[in-house]
Hints:
Oligomer: heterodimer
Order of helices and strands of chain B: HEEHEEHHEHEEH
Strand order of the largest sheet of chain B: 4-3-5-7-6
Largest sheet of chain B: 5 strands, mixed
Strand content of chain A: 15-25%
CATH architecture of chain B: 2-Layer Sandwich
Amino acid sequence: MDTRRPSAARRPAPQRGTLQTNRRTSPAMTRRGQPASVQGTGGDLSTVVLTDVSGSAQRDQPLPASDAP
Amino acid sequence: MRHDLYEIVRDVVRYVGLDLNALQTTDTGDGLRLLFPCSALEPVRVVDTFVLGLSTRLCEHRRYVADTARIRMRLAFGFGQVEPDRHGLTGEPLVRVARLVEAASLRAALLDDDRVDLAAVVSDGLFDTVVRHGHGYLRPSCFREIQVTVKEFTARAWQLVPDAGGICGRHCAVAA
């Protein structure tokens, strides 16, 4: 039996409707809408957002364990 | 307060279909630093999302918590190359936002008007590259030029006009 991989020319074309691209989907999303990791691989052009709480009497409350970075 | 902060930011990020846990975040003690690679979210959407989203969420938050638990926030945006190093991340934008968020003008915006929940500033580079062209919801006229001097850092930046477009808490205070 021939176990060689078919060449690109002989490879069957994808069936209609099986393409996995969706231009309306953010690149940060997977096909099922689940957020993918968007941390980048390093050296990326990025927008940096820094938030800083300026006033709250409760700023010293401990952070829930599940939110720890 | 920190739990509320995380929930507010999580909601804002979720609005654009992202998960806070999937982002590169750094807890700064009194705040959060987030990184959005351009491939994940366009810079113009980052600015719109955080300014409008935080304004809305902080306004809502104020309605259901005691005055002592109210959160008022400073917000800084930068743009550029960020790289990993052995200690975490490094890059000029990280230093820039750390300085911008300490701008006296931002603190003054919160001190001068108790109704304001959010004071925001955009780096000069991000403003020139993105905001100035008016592709986002926030128009260039929503910002005014400021000069920021913190430690040895001196730079031009663009501060959100507090009542630009009826955002940043003023309309909430009137309605409350």
